[in-house]
């Protein structure tokens, strides 16, 4: 099954499918639509205080991440035991896609409906990615992890970019098509949601999962399966938490990842709304920059994957964090649309590299037989990043009244994460994954 071209193609096509949701809905259209159409100009009043669309958006991203934060490792443990990664992936994929489709019906003043549907869509997107990522060490040999992970992200950037280009044309030429700007934005989001669910079918028809190697213990056969699997998932998660702390370098990487990914996730989630409200750039500037980022990120993902083969995954990853530090410093000072585009080009390069290398580096230090469970923990740290980063950005922006200060503050995440990454001993981390401590015990 390792390095099988058909399996790899099926796997990377899910990146092609779900990236349309991220690019068009999460990053580009919905933040601007939420700020300019759904939320009144004065903001949302709660407990006597008005909150801007920017602050609400950061909170929405944080809440959705928190739900996955709670359940990801347990779901991963269940899917490892039952060999049901693909089933879980399908359920969350189509739950998220359906919620994203229903965003089409949200208009002016539909604040609560938009918040609810976006949170459900985000939960579906993030949870499905746990099981998607968990397939990586099961389809790629160790010396191919960086390249295949980078290939997945490259497919994602191209797929998301193509769909976003169509959406951008629809929005920019809405009058030519006889549509209002508001309806064109809603239609663009609908197309992205359908793209996600539609192209995911290629993955689900092509990607194969090995049959389970374990059966339910006798003690669990007398209770409903859902309860048995849940109990086993919880027990295994607790057991792994107790054991994983003994693997210092794997844990050290996860903490480093949690910290530096705070900055990455926040820049990606807040870039469009930052350009809209703080910098006052037109939609044409914002959307054009985002489209360029998509295709530049292809070069970033594949280029840094090749660099990793020459200098090591860890070193190449460190280079990307230096690049992210440059991004937030540059963002603090920029004033023109040309500067914004230049910033976008840098983002594209380091985004592609940091995302693909983080995933492949982690895949090389986790036990293959428990990949979904460990990618569940990866998702906890990943989406923990999406809780604290946007929350910090929203809080700093709210109390200082200046989003530039908020964006500059993100450099702390990159510097601290970079220092911790330096302290990870790669060889010891990879040796530890084969330790008998991770071998499953019978119930």
UniProtKB/TrEMBL annotation:
Keyword Flavoprotein: no
GO molecular function: transmembrane transporter activity
Keywords: Membrane, Transmembrane, Transmembrane helix, Transport
Transmembrane segments: 12-35, 55-76, 88-105, 111-132, 153-172, 184-207, 250-274, 280-304, 316-334, 340-362, 374-399, 405-424
Domain Major facilitator superfamily (MFS) profile stretches: 20-429
InterPro entries the UniProt entry points to: Atg22-like (IPR024671), ATG22/LtaA_families (IPR050495), MFS_dom (IPR020846), MFS_trans_sf (IPR036259)
Keyword Endoplasmic reticulum: no
Bilayer topology: Multi-pass membrane protein
Protein name, UniProt field: MFS transporter
